[in-house]
């Protein structure tokens, strides 16, 4: 299975200080949906290795219907790259509005946490091929970002 979708209503417990849905709640839903997708593809336990570029376009209100679509867009030797789109709508509306999009990378691991090979996802349609190219571009950009962040990831080099 290369695609998973969740739908539910945002609850009063998901609230932030401004009265809308908390960004942390959205990140948790993204991780849960993407994990289910990666886990279903890999058929093994998977861990999150990278979450990138979450941009919240518009707030989500409490009581909105939230829809989260996640789908495989690339597989490496042991990694599964999942794109996630988050939508919401008022319960009495029909049309969903896109609220955020991101790509999460998972690694299939064995019971000792050691990376395991995953079956290859092969894009078939033009759109799937575009998605695979997109994942590869992000992967290359990530290497540059990691280089830039390296001094701050060093445990002996605190920011403050
Ligand atoms: C994920 C983990 C098992 C990878 O172990 P590792 O020794 O770094 O393994 P490797 O270097 O062989 O990398 C494994 C895969 O991760 C990918 N990877 C590593 N760093 C990455 C990064 N920054 N972004 C995206 N993918 C990355 C590699 O490209 C490789 O994929 P590939 O086989 O498809 O090419 C290890 O880093 C880990 O356990 N991390 C903690 C995971 C976790 O606890 N997540 C929950 C959030 S705290």
Structural key phrases:
160 residues, alpha+beta, Thiol Ester Dehydrase, Chain A, five-stranded antiparallel sheet, 2 helices, binds coenzyme A
Rg from C-alpha positions?
Answer: 17 Å
What's the shape?
Answer: globular
Q: Which fold name is given in CATH as the topology?
A: Thiol Ester Dehydrase, Chain A
As a percent range, the share of helical residues equals 25-40%
Brief account:
The chain has helices at 23-42, 126-153, and strands at residues 3-9, 46-52, 65-75, 79-89, 97-108. It has 160 residues and is α+β, with helices and mostly antiparallel strands.
Plain-language structure description:
This protein has helices at 23-42, 126-153; strands spanning 3-9, 46-52, 65-75, 79-89, 97-108. A 5-stranded antiparallel β-sheet has the order 1-3-4-5-2. Helices cover 30% and strands 30% of the residues. The termini are far apart. Strand 3 and strand 4 (79-89) form a beta hairpin. It has 160 residues and is α+β, with helices and mostly antiparallel strands. The protein is globular and about 45 Å long. Residues 47-50, 76-79, 105, 107, 109, 113, 115, 142, 146 line the site of coenzyme A (COA).
Secondary structure topology:
Elements: E1 3-9, H1 23-42, E2 46-52, E3 65-75, E4 79-89, E5 97-108, H2 126-153
Antiparallel strand pairs: 1-3, 2-5, 3-4, 4-5
The chain binds coenzyme A (COA).
């Amino acid at each position: 299975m290369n695609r998973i979708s969740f739908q539910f209503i945002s609850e009063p417990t998901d609230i932030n200080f401004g009265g809308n849905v908390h960004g942390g709640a959205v990140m948790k839903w993204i991780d849960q949906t993407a994990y289910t997708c990666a886990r279903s593809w890999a058929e093994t336990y998977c861990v999150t290795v990278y979450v990138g570029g979450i941009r919240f376009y518009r707030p989500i209100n409490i009581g909105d219907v939230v829809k989260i679509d996640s789908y495989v867009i690339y597989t490496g030797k042991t990694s599964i790259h999942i794109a996630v789109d988050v939508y919401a709508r008022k319960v009495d509306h029909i049309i969903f509005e896109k609220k955020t999009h991101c790509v999460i990378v998972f690694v299939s691991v064995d019971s000792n946490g050691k990376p395991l090979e995953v079956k290859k996802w092969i894009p078939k349609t033009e759109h799937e091929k575009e998605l695979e190219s997109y994942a590869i571009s992000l992967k290359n950009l990530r290497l540059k970002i990691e280089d830039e962040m390296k001094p701050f990831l060093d445990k002996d080099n605190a920011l403050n």
